Amino acid sequence: MKKIYALLFLLFALSATYAKPPKNQYVRIKTTYGDCIIRLYNQTPLHRDNFIKLTKQGFYNGTLFHRVIQNFMIQGGDPDSKKAQPGAELGNGDVGYTVPAEFRDSLFHKRGVLAAARDDNPTKASSGCQFYIVEGRRFTAGRLDTLEQTRLKGRKIPAYQRDTYTSIGGVPHLDQNYTVYGEVVTGLDIVDRIAAVAKDQRDRPATDVPMTVELLDKKECKAMDGLLKL
Known about the structure:
Number of strands: 10
Strand content: 15-25%
CATH class: Mainly Beta
Helix content: 25-40%
Number of helices: 6
Number of domains: 1
CATH superfamily: Cyclophilin-like
Strand order of the largest sheet: 3-4-8-6-9-2-1-10
Radius of gyration: 20 Å
């Protein structure tokens, strides 16, 4: 009898383990240049859940990466970019609401992060749909010192962030101004390829770069968690 109880307990424990949901939600952005997978941060639940909602609705499918700047970022998510005429100005489309800023000291504009675009509103609330992915560039310690005194107006960049900006790169002057809410975990080279395309005077790619965005299912998310050891 004891063996039966022990076996039942083991089966229950294994069942509970495998029934656990993944720790993170991942999304796949598919483009003509290839695909990338992004982990959405749990530390920014408002932005995470909003991105998940729009992705479930198929909102991003057919939208363009409408603004690309090499060594800086690629921006997309404007609903007006769907079937936009060549040369049309883009970047003003939205969904009629904003998402409150979710600034976290641990989440900063290192290379590969996903962040929310916004207009010039005083609370720094995010666009309900437009986003960008940071390509960035590497900085020397001296350039970071200069940046602190100029664009950052004396704000000090923490040591752990400086290490990242000098080794991996990013866009430090955007920190605490735009909400970071995810990061590319595979396919960062795709961001580099898109950032390098020919573009017009408004930084819109000369040849459209449409996207399809989809959620990874639970099995895929658990596999990504395991791969990243999260």
